[in-house]
Design a protein that fits this description.
With about 250 residues, this protein is an alpha+beta fold. About 20% of the residues lie in helices and about 30% in strands. Strands 1, 2, 3, 4, 5, 6, 7, 8, 9 and 10 form a 10-stranded mixed sheet that branches.
Length: about 250
Amino acid sequence: MKRVMLEVAYDGTNYCGWQVQPNGITVQEVLNRHLSELLQEPIETIGASRTDAGVHALGNIAVFDTSARMPGEKISYALNQRLPEDIRIQMSKEVAADFHPRYVKSEKTYAYRILNRRFPVPTERLYSHFTYVPLDVDRMAEAGQYLLGEHDFKSFCGSGAQVKTTVRSIHAFSVKKEGDVITLRITGSGFLYNMVRIIAGTLMEIGSGAYEPEHMKAIIEACDRKAAGATAPARGLTLVKINYTE
């Protein structure tokens, strides 16, 4: 028996998120089915990040155990021949038998894309959030600096989350505008349910002039979901990568 790691990229448009659930098809369900067929044994993957319905990924991580003789690094090639075009394995390799993608110290990087122009562009509709309200990226960048460091991010936690603590650490944050697309990029040791989407929604309100950038500090200190902005739509969010620091 060996444990194999997969780096998984997917377009989340047609899936009800990562995790297997009874009310719709998920990325994990598709992986489990095709791995089981490929390796001729029941396979259950363990994912590092349970992305929501409509959220995309360039580098989510999953592991599974198998007794198959196929080398770990070859599984990516064989599996990609079976998967639908909106899911692709970027890497596969054998890892330690006790490696767990959620319990090992790691850094996650997310990107949120905003199409900011007068009218929508059809080819961007699945991968960015459109708003015609002019956004000031300098104001958004200034507000984002208050997120850096360790804070109680309860104001940015979606309802229904079951966590022991809402304290998280943000290591890096940036805002970049190229043409009509604004990209928010955030890296941290972990994120709460809907945290990045709520941060994006709050920054858009600040960028539109609804609040001054320094109001972000008061939002964090409030530890109240009602103090922050709306939850931005899932389609603008992509899990870019997960780096394991141990």
